[in-house]
């Protein structure tokens, strides 16, 4: 493969990454703007713990937010951490997102207090954080360890969000999202090459 082909491949990867992130964020914003016009009626489709109908929220909750401020708070870390998940391989984004969504959603559904509704993309944000921080441990390659250290320096302070604290914040979504990211890192880790 010559340099021209490599450059075209790189441009194609970057375009795919931008398309994925713009698509996700655009959908979140479109849904929140629609929800504003509906007076917050869509928020009922969030995760409702231990309610059968609340299981649907596992799929819908990441796209629903309580306000534009809530959505703005999730947008920037979602874009940055989501892009870092794709930095090595764009295709990693999909299994990481699916695993994190399921683990965060099921954990919230099982362990959050009854009669509550949980919405927001922060479970994904914490999942991407867990994935990026732990991938270095599971792969033990220079690149993955360097990325884990960089993410730890930039976003390590977020880790406190997995603990109970602020009323109205779904720490369960944060905690189980983070654990889902660790699980995804373990499942997707490239096997270490052994010296022969």
UniProtKB/TrEMBL annotation:
InterPro entries the record matches: Peptidase_S54_rhomboid_dom, Rhomboid-like_sf, Rhomboid_protease_S54
Lineage: superkingdom: Bacteria
Its membrane topology: Multi-pass membrane protein
Molecular function terms from GO: serine-type endopeptidase activity
Protein keywords: Hydrolase, Membrane, Protease, Transmembrane, Transmembrane helix
Cellular localization per UniProt: Membrane
GO annotation, biological process: proteolysis
Annotated Peptidase S54 rhomboid domain residues: 58-189
GO cellular component: membrane
Transmembrane annotation, as ranges: 20-42, 62-86, 93-112, 118-138, 145-163, 169-189
Protein name stated in the entry: Rhomboid family intramembrane serine protease
Lineage: Bacteria, Bacillati, Cyanobacteriota, Cyanophyceae, Oculatellales
């Amino acid at each position: 493969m010559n340099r021209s082909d490599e450059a075209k491949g790189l441009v194609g990867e970057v375009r795919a990454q931008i398309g994925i992130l713009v698509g996700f964020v655009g959908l979140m914003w479109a849904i929140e703007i629609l929800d504003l016009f509906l007076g917050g009626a869509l928020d009922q489709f969030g995760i409702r713990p231990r309610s059968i109908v609340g299981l649907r929220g596992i799929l819908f909750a990441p796209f629903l937010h309580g306000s534009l401020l809530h959505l703005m708070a999730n947008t920037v870390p979602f874009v940055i951490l989501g892009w870092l998940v794709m930095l090595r391989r764009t295709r990693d984004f999909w299994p990481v997102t699916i695993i994190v969504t399921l683990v965060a959603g099921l954990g919230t559904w099982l362990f959050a207090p009854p009669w509550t509704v949980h919405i927001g993309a922060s479970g994904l944000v914490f999942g991407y954080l867990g994935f990026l921080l732990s991938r270095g441990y599971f792969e033990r390659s220079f690149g993955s360890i360097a990325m884990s250290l960089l993410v730890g320096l930039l976003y390590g302070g977020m880790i406190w969000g997995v603990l109970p604290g602020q009323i109205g914040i779904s720490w369960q979504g944060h905690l189980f999202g983070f654990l889902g990211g660790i699980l995804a890192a373990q499942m997707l880790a490239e096997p270490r090459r052994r010296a022969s």
